[in-house]
Amino acid sequence: MVRLFAACNYCSRNHHATKAKKFPWKMALGSTAVLIIFLFCYSSQLFVWPNVWLAKKADSRNATLTPVSGSKMFLLNAYLEHRTWNASIRFITIAWRSEKIDYSCVFTCNEGLVPSPAKLTVHPSHFWFPYGTADLLCEIPPGCSKLRAAVTTVGGSTSNLTFLPVRNQKRRESNFPVDFTICHSTMFNKYNNVLQFVQAMEMYQLLGAKRVVLYKTDCSPDMEEVLRYYRDIGLIEIIDWPIDKYIKVSSSWIASESPGDLHYYGQIPVLNDCVYRNMYRTKYLFMHDPDEIILPLQNVTWYEFLSTLEQKYSSDASFYFENNVFPIEELEESGKYNLSQWAGIPGVNFLRHVMREPIPKRHFTTGKLIVNPRRLFEISVHTIKKQSHRTVEVPYDFARLFHMRRRKNTKLKREDLVMDKALWRYAPEMIRGVDHALSKMDLPSRRLNSAVHP
Ligand SMILES: *[C@@H]1O[C@H](CO)[C@@H](O)[C@H](O)[C@H]1NC(C)=O
Ligand SMILES: *[C@@H]1O[C@H](CO)[C@@H](O)[C@H](O)[C@H]1NC(C)=O
Ligand SMILES: *[C@@H]1O[C@H](CO)[C@@H](O)[C@H](O)[C@H]1NC(C)=O
Ligand SMILES: *[C@@H]1O[C@H](CO)[C@@H](O)[C@H](O)[C@H]1NC(C)=O
Ligand SMILES: *[C@@H]1O[C@H](CO)[C@@H](O)[C@H](O)[C@H]1NC(C)=O
Q: What cellular-component terms does GO give this entry (predicted)?
């Protein structure tokens, strides 16, 4: 029970990032509250995507994961780490946590291959699965190339190394190629929430996003076409994530629910990789899923909103937004946005769900983050685990995380919910954007339908 308990971040509403650590564990242990907390916590961690174990393999044109021979570790990517005293390289990895092995990075240098001892850090957000996210940090020896590096076990063979290109060669603290990038984690299980995904992409663009990064395990044929469109217009960058070819992943955040060796399709290594990958390519990173939108309430765009936050808290801070659940079971009554042109498009319609669950005084922090990636070292789903600056919780009336999902607090009746139509402010432009995007897509399901009913 202690483990389950510790896996949640239990905080009061006006929490600060550091408060979570001060929770009096002993007091609560043994009380029935533990069970209640667990159930609440547990339900909060389930996402809208169904939990079915997936054996389907995604194709990988690029090797996403590189095994380290002599160990169970996999490497994701190598990044130049500009924030250490001496120039270093950080590998983002997935490590078998009980394995006690010393690693070395290997560099190509003037005098040939040179090893450099690696400092292994296992991230705390492993949810007690045997595999967890880890990183390996190595100083670059003088006279060695920073362009490529490999990893070996200490004493292991250096005859058959895979050298990875080192990303983030150029450090930037201003003039970023884009201001706002969104990191979506893993797409899996024949993902087919087409309408919701298209609406989210159009909303993000209206608000100011220039790039969305998505790690894809697999999705439906319709979604392939949606992704094709957004890749062609330069919005989405798709990173193949055939994690199930390498590791038996869990479809849950907890092993007893879905056995496996790694938490939730590898969400944590993906989020960390996304932070490093975009460190010098974007001013801010939004870390959330396509069923979520962070909506400014007193400004129209993210530009206006983030510049207001910067003035107040500086651009070194990261920002936390509490979760606001809009149950998809509750439809808006007038049917105003039940649009005939979207009939037959699979997926949730953001505009039809305007009832939100009120946030209780004391609750679990299952919200999401806007981060300055250059100030981060380790991130989890709802919290930053290691950073050089602080996280600010953004007040509730200033901006709100809209999260469309099935009911979370099942005790609430419709009359307990709060009507919230803030998203409707954007409806006319969003609908125009969605209709335009759909008109440029050739969805296979529509092709079939029109063949049957010409
Ligand atoms: C990786 O995939 C991209 C697109 O899928 C392709 O353009 C690139 O050449 C591939 N790289 C390698 C090393 O295979
Ligand atoms: C940086 O490198 C120098 C020379 O190799 C070494 O003496 C020093 O300890 C390193 N500094 C840190 C903080 O690791
Ligand atoms: C070298 O690595 C490749 C791919 O990882 C593997 O197929 C091959 O057996 C290895 N060769 C040796 C001699 O270890
Ligand atoms: C954004 O909202 C803040 C108040 O929340 C306000 O002070 C600021 O003027 C707004 N910016 C714009 C451009 O409307
Ligand atoms: C939504 O509109 C369609 C017609 O486009 C209609 O058939 C359907 O019953 C409506 N659904 C609801 C829940 O109002």
A: cytoplasm; membrane
What is the phi-psi region of residue 127: left when phi exceeds 0, alpha when psi lies from -120 to 50, beta otherwise? left
Q: Return phi, psi of residue 411, to 5°.
A: -75, -20
Nearest protein Cα to ligand 1, atom 13: 62
3 state SS for 152-200 = EECCCCCCCCCCEEEECCCCCCCCCCEEEEEEEEEECCCECCHHHHHHH
Ligand 5 centre distance from Cα of residue 338 (Å): 6
CA nearest ligand 5 atom 10, residue:
338
Pocket residues: Cβ below 6 A from ligand 1: 61-62
258 lines ligand 4 (CB under 6 A): no
The closest of 182, 212, 175 to 369, measured between CA atoms, is 182
For residue 112, the CA-to-ligand 2 centroid distance in Å is 22
Q: Would the CB of 86 count as within 6 Å of ligand 2?
A: yes
How far is it, in rounded angstroms, from Cα 387 to Cα 374? 9
Distance CA(105)–CA(140), nearest Å, equals 9
Ligand 4 site-directed mutation target among 297, 305, 308, 310, most atoms within 8 Å of CB = 308
Amino acid code (one letter) for 312: K
What does each of the 454 residues of the chain score in pLDDT, given as a tens digit? 333 333 333 333 333 333 333 444 455 445 554 444 444 434 333 322 222 222 222 223 356 899 999 999 999 999 999 999 999 999 999 999 999 999 999 999 998 999 999 999 999 999 999 999 999 999 999 999 999 999 999 988 888 899 999 999 999 999 999 999 999 989 999 999 999 999 999 999 999 999 999 999 999 999 999 999 999 999 999 999 999 999 999 999 999 999 999 999 999 999 999 999 999 999 999 999 999 999 999 999 999 999 999 999 999 999 999 999 999 999 999 999 999 999 999 999 999 999 999 988 888 889 999 999 999 999 999 999 999 999 999 998 899 999 999 988 888 988 999 999 999 999 999 999 999 999 999 999 988 766 655 4
Ligand closest to Cα of 231 equals: 1
Q: Which amino acid, one-letter code, is at 411?
A: K
Mutate to test the pocket of ligand 5, among 332, 338, 339 (most ligand atoms within 8 A of CB): 338
Residue 3 CA, ligand 5 centroid: distance in Å? 46
Atom number, ligand 2, closest to the C-alpha of residue 86: 1
Q: Residue whose CA is closest, atom 14 of ligand 1? A: 62
